[in-house]
Amino acid sequence: MSIALFPGSFDPPTYGHLNIIERASRLFDKIDVVVSANPGKKNLFTAEERVVMLKTLCEPYANVSVHSWDKLIVEYAEKAGAKVLIRGIRNVNDFSYEFDLSLMNHSLNSNIETLFIPTESRFAIVKSSSIKELAQFGGDISNMVPPVVCEAVKKRYKLN
């Protein structure tokens, strides 16, 4: 059985994330979406809230499960028996960052490979940090995030 991990902060989950999940679900027998639970990072949503949203969003994919993890992703990979980390990239800046990260992960566990999946062009500008900034000022984010996420973001910023 081929198992791949799609790790990230997913704060908040976007249509770009879902696009990568959907495409990866066709390539691997099992996908574990792994929400990083980093207490040192200031997130809009708790890890538990992000897991709940992603579980709802991933219901259509029978081979996708969602988990939270607060340690190195290579440790999760070893525990899960996964050999592949999936990383979505939008542009050359993402690639540069993700490439360096893949080298670090590979140095920590040489059995782990990173697969880069370029985003579809319609998601190239969808970035969680930009979504949060836009939402704070009452901007329309409905074309960047699913309705359940859009409502959660509006509620968090008290925009309803």
Instruction: Note the overall shape.
Output: globular
Number of strands: 5
Overall radius of gyration: 15 Å
User: What's the tally of helices?
Assistant: 6
The unreliable regions are: none
Sheet with most strands: 5 strands, parallel
Residue share in helix? 40-55%
Helix and strand sequence: EHEHEHEHEHH
**What value does the average pLDDT take?**
95
Give an overview in words.
By secondary structure, the chain is an alpha/beta fold. Helix content is 41%, strand content 19%. It contains six helices and five strands; from the N terminus they run E-H-E-H-E-H-E-H-E-H-H. The chain has helices at residues 15-25, 47-57, 73-80, 92-108, 128-136, 147-156, and strands at 3-8, 30-36, 64-69, 84-89, 113-118. Helix 1 links the parallel strand 1 (3-8) and strand 2 (30-36). It starts with a strand and ends with a helix.
Keywords:
6 helices; alpha/beta; 160 residues
Structural topology:
Layout: E1 3-8, H1 15-25, E2 30-36, H2 47-57, E3 64-69, H3 73-80, E4 84-89, H4 92-108, E5 113-118, H5 128-136, H6 147-156
Parallel strand pairs: 1-2, 1-4, 2-3, 4-5
